[in-house]
Amino acid sequence: MLQGKNFVTEWDGLEDDSALFRHEVAFCLGQRQDPAAIQTLESILRDTAEHPMVRHEAGEALGAIGSPACIPPLRDHAADGCLEVAQTCQLALQRIEFLEGHEPCDPSAPQRYLSVDPTPPAPAATPTPALAATLLDDGARIFDRYRALFALRDRGGEEALEALAGAFASSSALLKHEVAYVLGQMQDARAVACLKRVLGDAGEAAMVRHEAAEALGAIADRACLALLQQYTEDAEPIVADSCIVALDMLEFEQSGGFQYADDGAVAT
């Protein structure tokens, strides 16, 4: 667990005009897993005037911290009027409950992805078709679908990518945004085509299109450049700003200075 009390920069960022930036700040507070951030995150979650994507990230961050003090606000919003916020709080509560009854992962085991994820992956021995079936089942618990998602990420390969791409047909914007995030972590150029379709779909939720844009930036395929430039003028500010960020990510990745999987994570 990363700890510290110097949250001046992060808290200042929560006053920023950009919802995209505020959600990134909330994500970072969760990744640090420091209980000192709980009160701030709780106030964001409870603020129904805040952008739903920022509230979602605050709920996920509380789940990442996972201390007993995180449970009451998560319970209070597990039936929130915003479905994505409600599902996030349900996931966070299930993560806390799961980790209370299971041994933590072996810290000596090799891990490619260092992000603090909303759920642990499904067991590594689970066959890929079974993981895909769970991920694509809109009637399954979202906690189980997320576990399948992260197991597929960890497995990698064409069959896993095909299952992840198929999840964009889901009715859950929360799940789809996490799929796009995971595809960015994997940095597999075979995911570019489906991410382009998601970014270009004006009827898709902003949180999903935002993650698709940043995933394209992380994959850093030059073929993505024109598309990202096109959507920097999108009518949805979160999408437009995400494309600007993605262009910076693409440039930095191609310079050899950015290691998406090894040095951390970008907000979900």
From TrEMBL:
Entry's Gene Ontology molecular function annotations: deoxyhypusine monooxygenase activity; metal ion binding
Cofactor note: Binds 2 Fe(2+) ions per subunit.
Sites where the protein binds Fe cation 1: H23, E24, H56, E57
Primary role: Catalyzes the hydroxylation of the N(6)-(4-aminobutyl)-L-lysine intermediate to form hypusine, an essential post-translational modification only found in mature eIF-5A factor.
Matches recorded under SMART domains: EZ_HEAT
InterPro entries per UniProt: ARM-like, ARM-type_fold, Deoxyhypusine_hydroxylase, PBS_lyase_HEAT
Binding-site list for Fe cation 2: H177, E178, H210, E211
Key words of the record: Hypusine biosynthesis, Iron, Metal-binding, Monooxygenase, Oxidoreductase, Repeat
Pathway: Protein modification; eIF5A hypusination
PANTHER family: DEOXYHYPUSINE HYDROXYLASE, PBS LYASE HEAT-LIKE PROTEIN
E.C. no: 1.14.99.29
Catalytic activity annotation: [eIF5A protein]-deoxyhypusine + AH2 + O2 = [eIF5A protein]-hypusine + A + H2O
Cofactor: Fe(2+)
Transmembrane regions listed in the UniProt entry: none
Record protein name field: Deoxyhypusine hydroxylase
Domain of life: Eukaryota
Taxonomic lineage of the native organism: Eukaryota, Viridiplantae, Chlorophyta, core chlorophytes, Trebouxiophyceae
Class in the EC hierarchy, top level: oxidoreductase
Recorded family membership: Belongs to the deoxyhypusine hydroxylase family.
